[in-house]
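[READ THE FOLD]
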Amino acid sequence: MDSVSSDENINQIGCKFALVGPELKLQKNVILELNENGTILKITPNANIKRRSANVSFPHHLIIPKLINSHIHLGDSALKDQAFNLSLDEAVGKTGLKYQVNSYSKSERIAAMKNSIKEMIYSGTSTCLDFREGGIEGIKELIVAKENLPINIQCFGRFNNSKILIDEISLYNGLGLSTPIDYTLKEMEKLKLISQENNLAIATHIGENEMVISEATNQFGDSDLNIALNYLDPKILVHLIVTSEADRKKIPKSKFLVFCPRANAYFGLGFPPVDYFVQAGYKIGLGTDNVMITSPNIIEELKWTLLRLREKKLFLDPIEALKMITINPAFNLNINSGCLYPNFSGDALIVNLKTARTNFSEDPIKNLLFRAQFPSDIDMNLFHGKQIGNEEIACK
């Protein structure tokens, strides 16, 4: 590999393999060209990467789009591993452990979030969607935590009244609800109106356990999924573990469905119906959920999911699996990342296929998913066309 400093603009990269375009098509001997703003200009396959002029050349590597984490709670980063052996309600319910993060100082909360963000960057994430509790103050803490770090964080705020939503609307990207049944039908309709008038996406947890289904039935005489679809019109539905097949069939294909299998396993809630929705033709994403219970390394989430799907007799193509953390969220949530294609941001990972772990695997895709370790086997980590130096994201 040719050397390049972390503050140097990269105009051309030559790589033996690349996953290109919306289909993540495997191409050989690829030249990736970037403009001065770090946007992809052109991708040329079957090039002579040894002779072609390029800033850097990687003769034994695979270049892939950076990864997208479609659901995370960064706010409880200071509580790592304290929820072990607690129930879901004890950990993240209305009076759960996660709210004890407020016993930490503001500076401690911000420092913990900053370290989690750095861990995401280091392991290849370009973008994450954060459910942020604590209203505007919680959002402002997150803004401080991510300041000057090479990552895009879409913040989905949570509020107790609608006035705050409008006053600080420039600070967040959407509304992240714990559950629709925390609101009256009138409040849900108001949230829906606010979201439509201000171009804010609504995301909500749905069917995370049996208790929420029971509460929904007692309060509204219906499932939380049907209530959300009828009164909130959310764009993003998260979890969907406890859902009937009849209810699942009511979900429009336009909704983006996000699953967090490791977090579900942590609480003993079972494996979510990823197999059902994949086979039904939905476009889905993956998230790592609460930092206090799972690491924010999204490719580890994908590996876990792909292997668990084999237990369901679903032998998912690895390329289709990889779309869950790249193409699917990029195209369904209008994120200008997660795809190596002209006019997309130059957010890319260059993975070494000749390390002690990855050498002697002849299939670069299976090598990526079952052999490579992130961040150890990432030889170049690009955000907006600029190499991220390890000193920028060292967790201190």
About this structure: The CA atoms of residues 354 and 360 lie 8 Å apart. The chain has a mean pLDDT of 93.
